[in-house]
Structure formats: C-alpha cells, structure tokens
Amino acid sequence: MKIQDIPNEIVREVLTEEQIENKLDEIAKQIDKDYEGKELLLIGVLGGAVMCMADLSRRISSPLEIDWIAISTYGQGTTSTGVIRILKDLYTDIKNRHVLIVEDILDSGLTLSWLKSNLTSRGPASVEIFTLLQKPDARKIEVEAKYVGFDIPNEFVIGYGLDYAQKYRNLRSIAVLHPDVYTQKS
Ligand code: 5GP
Ligand code: MG
C-alpha cells in the first residue's frame, strides 16, 4: 500500500521507501563492520519490527540467526513505570551470544529498557539495539540504541510495520496518521 491509496487518512509522509532503503543499506554496512568475526543473533520485537527485520537482515552480509519475542505493555502514557509481560518468548538460548534487538520505534524507552535488561539477565556476550525510528522528545527513560535510523518528531506514525489498531502495517513508507482516524468509529 502507498500513501496515494489512503490520502484522507494521513497528514503527511515522514519517510519515503527510498529514504528507508538507503538508511538500511548504510546501517547494515556498519553492522557488518562492527560484528566482523562474531556471530550475530537478531531478535525482532513482534509485530512492528517485521519489515525492519526482513529488510535489514537481508542487507547484512555476515551469517546470522533470527529469533522473535512478543511483549505487551501496560500502564504507558500517564505512568512512568511500564508494566511489561512476555507473550511469546525466544526459542534461542542467548547465553554467550551477540544479540542485536531489532525494533521499529523508540518512544518513551520503557519497552526497550525493560527488554534490554531482561535479555541481559540471560547472560549474552553483548546486547545492542537497532531502532528504525526514535522520538527524542518522548523519552522518559535513558536507553542507548547503537543503531538509529531516523529521529522523528513526537507524532503518531504508521506504516512500514507500524500499526494503528493493527492497520497500516503494509504501507510502504512512514506517515503521520490523521487524528480523525482515532475519533472515527472503526
Ligand atoms: P516505548 O516503550 O518506547 O514508549 O514504546 C515503544 C512501542 O510503542 C513501539 O514498539 C510501538 O509499538 C509503540 N509506538 C510508539 N510510538 C509509536 C508511533 O508513533 N506509532 C506506532 N504505530 N506505534 C508507536
Ligand atoms: Mg514495537
């Protein structure tokens, strides 16, 4: 799906397909350098990171493995302590592995901060974070992502894996969702 297919539902395009592709090329090259001689385990956070995982992992030349984790977040927004629960855990034992978390967006930071410490407690050789997007103005908790695609303003975006009510994940680019969509009955 392209933005021309849903003109009334978006405010503006934030990132084109081409911008995303070029950025992933760049970051994949950097990852190849940084992990030379090491075997990488990519851990994707379901389901927003599916597109990032598909497109980033295929650009990496080194051998790697892929696993997935699904988590749910409660108490976000008004509270400062996100309560997080694992819905689907990893298949892989990550002890002594070089882990790179693959995430779509770093917003308050609560999810990735929790996930990083959860994975760290399992004894990996290293844990780093890739996030395609981050909203610096929304950060509530310090989390360091080693690889960041783009900084974006504090607005709700959809597309390229990111959803609103499970929709728009198949949009090829990333766009700001029109606020009318939240208030319309679905
Ligand atoms: P955090 O714990 O950093 O506040 O939130 C991260 C999660 O919130 C992301 O993985 C994503 O699921 C969701 N999220 C945060 N900002 C946005 C956004 O602008 N659009 C969408 N679709 N999801 C978002
Ligand atoms: Mg996510």
Could you walk me through the main structural features you see in this protein, from its secondary elements to its overall organization?
- The protein has four helices and nine strands.
- With 186 residues, the chain is an alpha/beta fold.
- The strands form two sheets. The protein has a six-stranded mixed β-sheet, sandwiched between helices. Strands 1-9-8 form a three-stranded antiparallel β-sheet.
- Residues 45, 48-49, 103-104 line the site of magnesium ion.
Looking at this protein, list some descriptive labels.
186 residues; alpha/beta; Rossmann fold; 6-stranded mixed β-sheet; 3-stranded antiparallel β-sheet; 4 helices; 22% helix; globular; binds guanosine-5'-monophosphate; binds magnesium ion; glycosyltransferase; metal-binding; Hxn_phspho_trans
Portion of residues in beta strands equals 25-35%
Domains counted in the coordinates: how many? 1
SS elements, strand count:
9
The geometry reads as globular
| Mean pLDDT reading | 93
Query: Which CATH class is shown?
Result: Alpha Beta
**Can you list the ligands bound to this structure?**
guanosine-5'-monophosphate, magnesium ion
> Widest sheet: strand order?
4-3-2-5-6-7
CATH topology: Rossmann fold
Reported for the largest beta sheet, the result is:
6 strands, mixed
How far is the N terminus from the C terminus? 19 Å
What's the SSE blueprint?
Layout: E1 10-15, H1 17-34, E2 40-46, H2 50-57, E3 64-74, E4 83-88, E5 98-106, H3 110-120, E6 126-134, E7 147-151, E8 157-158, E9 174-177, H4 180-183
Parallel strand pairs: 2-3, 2-5, 5-6, 6-7
Antiparallel strand pairs: 1-9, 3-4, 8-9
Helix pairs in contact: 1-2
The site of guanosine-5'-monophosphate (5GP) has 20 residues, from strand 5, helix 3 and strand 8.
Protein name: hypoxanthine phosphoribosyltransferase
Organism: freshwater metagenome
Pathway: Purine metabolism; IMP biosynthesis via salvage pathway; IMP from hypoxanthine: step 1/1
